[in-house]
Every structure is written in C-alpha cells, then in structure tokens.
Amino acid sequence: MTSTAPTTSEDRPRLHRHLETPLGDYVLAATPDGLVGVWREHQKHYPAPERLGATACGPHALLDEAQAQLLEYLRGDREDFDLPLAPEGTDFQRAVWDHLRTIPRGATTTYGQIARTLARPRAAQAVGAAVGSNPLSIVVPCHRVLGSTGSMTGYAGGIETKQALLLLEGALLT
C-alpha cells in the first residue's frame, strides 16, 4: 500500500548553495542524508526560503560534488550522476522518481508508460503530478518524460530548459 504521508528531513540540518549554470541559476540543497534539492531559481515548486536551510559557507563535500557533477553533465562530460539522494515525498512520488532514474540518457518516455510500469495504468495524471514535483531536477531526469503524443509538456524549469536538456542528451534533433 502506498503511503500518502511525505517523508521529510525537517529534523536534519539542511544547507544550500547557489550555482550559475549554462541553463540558468540553480540552488542545490543537502542534508546529512544526501542531496534533497536541485531547483532552477524561481521555477514552479521552488521551495520556501525556510525549506532551503542555511547557506553553505565554504567547502561542503556533498554540495561540492553535486556542483561538480552537474556542471560536468551540462558540459557533456558526464553521462549520469553518482550522488547520495534523499528526496522528500510520498511513497508514490519516490517510486516515480526512482523510475525516472532508470530512463536512459537520450531516451524519453510518457506519463502513461510510467504509470503502466508501476502497475497503476490509470494513474498517468498522478504520475504527472509526481514528475512535476520532482525536487532533484536534472539529477533525477524528469525532463525525459513527454506527453502521450510525444509532445513537450510542462516542465517546472521551463520548456526551453527541457528542450535544451533533451538536445544535450541527443533525445531531440535540432
């Protein structure tokens, strides 16, 4: 049975850092359990300031590594990510996010296909909501999910960002 109670790390100290990338400004956030957020600044579902935690001053092993891997990825020097992840969400959301990590670079899928894979064939809308609330954009590749007709559908970081990521990965032709 899927729990609707979200998992949180409110009792775990959270730190964040801002990062300029070729796709815009991002915020990375981590707890001692792992990376909890990669958000494009001002995107849909951007967390409230208190949910970002304190600004990381100086070196921070996980945020340093996440920053390095994200920049390598965006330069085309990295194929995937090797980071401890600790996204906060319901069991269903985390199942969707786990599935997103299985979509290979350069490939796409649809909300309906994910719903069927999760043995919830009528849950395409719920899958869409979970994909849309993914707190680890790019690292958990929600940009690889398209509408049922292959159309570019909403993306919290903007359709232009989704297109740029799919072009970078070779999933779209120019």
Task: Set out the fold topology.
Elements lengths: L14 E7 L2 E8 L2 E7 L8 H4 L1 E2 L5 H15 L15 H10 L8 E2 H7 L6 H9 L12 E2 L12 H11 L5
Parallel strand pairs: 1-4, 5-6
Antiparallel strand pairs: 1-2, 2-3
What this model shows, in words?
This protein is α/β, with parallel strands linked by helices and 174 residues long. It folds into two domains: 15-75; 91-169, Orthogonal Bundle (Arc Repressor Mutant, subunit A), CATH 1.10.10. The protein is 32% helix and 16% strand. The protein contains six helices and six strands, in the order E-E-E-H-E-H-H-E-H-H-E-H. The strands form two sheets. Strands 3-2-1-4 form a four-stranded mixed β-sheet, with helices on one face. The protein has a two-stranded parallel sheet with strand order 5-6. Strand 1 and strand 2 form a beta hairpin. Helix 3 packs across helix 5 and helix 4 (111-117) packs across helix 5 (124-132). 29% of the residues are buried.
Features:
four-stranded mixed beta sheet, alpha/beta, 6 strands, two-stranded parallel sheet, 2 domains, Arc Repressor Mutant, subunit A, 174 residues
